[in-house]
Amino acid sequence: MDEQTFRSKYGSWAFVAGASEGIGAAFATRLAELGLNLFLVARREDLLEETAQRIRRRSPAVQVETQALDLAAPDLLARLAHLDGRDVGLCVYNAAYAAIQPFLDHSVEQLGAHLDVNCRGPLLLAHQFAHRFRQRAQSGEPASGGIILMSSMVGFAGTSLLGAYAASKSFLVTLGESLYHELGESGTDVLVCVAGATRTPGYLGSEPHYGWFKPTVAEPEQVVEEALAALGKKPVQVAGAGNRITLFVMQRLLGRALATRFMNHTIKQTFSHRD
């Protein structure tokens, strides 16, 4: 999609949550190249501002505003109320919380963070932005907006060491599929982008050790390009050919029980050295 078409379809501003690094920063960079002004949110203010400055240098015609914000905040929507007057036509929710450890080692606070950041945050923001998009559509504008929710391959099978994270990512797949059909009737495009291993600071910082199965590690920019190309065309985009093949084997050939055993074995090989 060219810059003019994209901008006319999704408005002049994009909101990106979890934009300080990795896939979120790649989304912000690409959307700026497409001519959208940016409102970027992340918890770490220093990294967020570094990303913003880098985008300002690369795309000087684009406005970039930032807000340091914990997306687990109980008053999340109130803290973003100042966006009400902006022509935000695209919401990208990339933020996530993941504690890689046995379930019984989680604190109550960590369990709550999985729910607040990975489920409550995108649920509330999707609801908030979808209301705005519907108002735009009702005002006679040709398109109402778009919502992109980032999920993960582990959302398709429960797994040790990542149980709470995997469950929260499964929630996003179901939510996004539901909204794709329901909101699509009024012109809002909804996409769940499912990423596998991706070369982000978070993934590399987890120090993965590979066994007999070594996944293809994607670049953030590749994930973003696939997501933007799929937006408005399908409810779920699994990024990367290798991930699509893996998911096909898991769902169509192995069945649920064997797929879950495969995922557990792979995750234990990759992360059990952290125990």
Tell me the radius of gyration.
18 Å
Count of domains:
1
CATH superfamily: NAD(P)-binding Rossmann-like Domain
| Helix segment tally | 9
CATH fold title: Rossmann fold
Strand order of the largest sheet: 3-2-1-4-5-6-7
Q: What is the number of beta strands?
A: 7
Low-confidence stretches: none
Approximate shape: globular
* Measured distance between first and last alpha carbons: 45 Å
Oligomer: single chain
The CATH architecture is: 3-Layer(aba) Sandwich
Report the top-level CATH class: Alpha Beta
Share of helix, binned: 40-55%
* Main beta sheet strand tally, sense and closure: 7 strands, parallel
Q: Which structural class fits the helix and strand makeup?
A: alpha/beta
Order of helices and strands: HEHEHEHEHEHEHHEH
Provide a descriptive summary of the structure in words.
The chain has 275 residues and is of the alpha/beta class. It has one domain: 3-Layer(aba) Sandwich (Rossmann fold). Helix content is 50%, strand content 15%. It has nine helices and seven strands. The protein has helices at 3-10, 22-33, 45-58, 76-79, 108-138, 163-184, 201-205, 220-230, 241-271; strands at residues 13-17, 37-42, 64-68, 88-93, 145-152, 188-195, 236-238. It has a seven-stranded parallel β-sheet, sandwiched between helices. Strand 2 (37-42), helix 3 (45-58) and strand 3 (64-68) form a beta-alpha-beta unit. Helix 2 (22-33) packs across helix 8. The longest helix has 31 residues, at 108-138. The radius of gyration is 18 Å and the shape is globular.
